[in-house]
Design brief:
Layout: H1 16-29, E1 36-42, E2 45-51
Antiparallel strand pairs: 1-2
Length: about 50
């Protein structure tokens, strides 16, 4: 099963610390090493990054 990381903030927030741990589990140390991805809103649209 996939793992999800959700974050909501009303001010600009740094997600690097939380995302680094999720990326390690999704790509190397977790039981389901299927890769990782992230999508976020930026302005009027959204951006998506996926690995692999």
């Amino acid at each position: 099963m996939c793992e999800l990381l959700g974050m909501s903030a009303n001010v600009p927030t740094d997600i690097c610390f939380s995302f680094t741990g999720l990326m390690q589990r999704g790509g190397r140390t977790g039981p389901h090493r299927d890769g990782w991805g992230i999508t976020f809103y930026e302005g009027k649209g959204f951006r998506t990054f996926k690995d692999p």
